[in-house]
Design a protein that fits this description.
It is built from 2 helices and 35 strands. The protein is globular and about 60 Å long. With 396 residues, it is mostly beta strands.
Length: 396
């Protein structure tokens, strides 16, 4: 038996799990609107970050922990590049910064004043909202608070926990569950009949949330190639695994294939291929299928970056040739025009995909898909390499 424990910032009762049957409301007249943007990070953990300066604003977060509990939107952790004039490929003191601040939006759409923090900085976890709390699975970051990738190596996590909000006491609580069989980040997850399913790399795992002490089970993986940064969702009792990418010796491989897992039949089925790769995008269940938005499908750009990176790394660091290749990589990043604008809809009855519109702003990537009162919500995220947005969108 695998034990599990509670790490609480305030005591709260354990609520029964809501079955994963919530669906996005997407009527023909539905439209996107902006909620209040994400507040600035308050933790001044390093002098290179201008926290507290008059110009300090929230830059946005890639890979935040995000979900809904007790009617409140919870956003925590995430990663960005907060040093002034320093983005993903420019030399800086900290590298990519991983945060541990926690933000809570009330049902009326306003951010509550909080000073909550996670024990560790964390980003790129798989997140699923339940009435027990936001289920947070894996991810990467640093122990004991915020940190930067240029200061110390980023650590992948096998940690699994509920993140809850006690509205009465206005406190955050964290409850530990059995850890994953291995550390992972960029996984995707969904819940069917109180069982959570997690996919990443070549692995597929499950945990019975009604009996967490039984630990994780390793299940047969999908009949396709290993992948990371895929898209996952649950609809009508099936777990869907869409797209993803993998790095090979020949370059990046972007996947368009998609699969549906039936827990009742304990088997996978390949469904219609996507029109294009939606790696790092978001998928929401609707009454009649799936709504998929965002993601990155620019294979040519990825392979050009990989080619230039390999050429740069063959040169002595900081030599003229090293800087020449590094400047090309920076130029490619700086002139990136953004991620996929089209919104896709999947019809399981017809096993078909179609374009159903366009996202109203810079399309998102690397942020969890959140349903809040049955409406899709897009919390912050990455809008091009190294660049985040603090905007929070809601489809109503």
């Amino acid at each position: 038996m695998v034990g599990f424990s509670r790490r609480a910032f305030a005591a709260a009762s354990l609520l029964p799990l809501v079955p994963a049957t919530a669906r996005a409301s997407t009527s023909p007249g539905a439209g996107w609107s902006r909620l209040a943007p994400l507040p600035p990070n308050p933790t001044a953990w390093h002098p290179a970050i201008p926290v507290g300066k008059p110009y300090w604003r929230q830059l946005g977060l890639a890979g935040p922990v995000a979900g809904v509990h007790a009617g409140h939107l919870i956003v925590a952790g995430g990663a960005n590049f907060p040093e002034p004039a320093k983005t993903s490929n420019r030399q800086n003191a900290l590298g990519k910064v991983y945060w541990n601040d926690v933000f809570v939006m009330a049902p009326n759409g306003s951010w509550s004043p909080t000073t909550f923090t996670l024990p560790n900085s964390l980003a790129y976890s798989a997140c699923v909202s339940t009435s027990r709390g936001v289920l947070v699975i894996g991810g990467e970051g640093f122990p004991h608070g915020a940190g930067g990738s240029a200061l110390t190596p980023v650590r992948k996590s096998a940690e699994v926990f509920y993140l809850r909000y006690d509205a009465r006491r206005r406190m955050i609580e964290q409850e530990q569950l059995p850890p994953l069989p291995r550390p992972m980040s960029y996984g995707v997850a969904g819940i069917v009949d109180d069982v959570v399913y997690v996919a990443e790399g070549a692995d597929f795992y499950s945990l019975d949330l009604a009996r967490p002490g039984d630990g994780w089970r390793t299940l047969p993986s999908w009949p396709g190639d290993p992948r990371s940064v895929a898209v996952g969702a649950v609809h009508n009792g099936r777990f869907y695994l869409l797209s993803g990418r993998a790095q090979t010796p020949e370059g990046w491989r972007f996947h368009r294939d998609a699969y549906a897992y039936s827990p009742r039949r304990k088997s996978w089925r390949r469904i219609a291929d996507l029109p294009w790769c939606v790696t790092a995008g978001l998928a929401y269940p609707t009454a009649d299928g799936l709504l998929v938005l965002g993601g990155d499908r620019d294979l040519e750009r990825w392979n050009l970056i990989q080619e230039q990176t390999a050429s740069r790394d063959r040169e002595p660091k900081n030599s003229p040739r090293w800087h020449e290749h590094n400047d090309v990589i920076t130029w490619i990043y700086d002139h990136h025009t953004g991620f996929t604008t089209e919104v896709l809809r999947y019809d399981p009855a017809r096993d078909s995909w179609r374009t159903t519109g366009h996202f109203p702003g810079p399309p998102p990537a690397t942020t969890p898909a959140v349903l809040w009162r049955e409406h899709p919500v897009v919390v912050s995220g990455e809008i091009r390499p190294g660049v985040r947005t603090p905007v929070v969108w809601k489809l109503s």
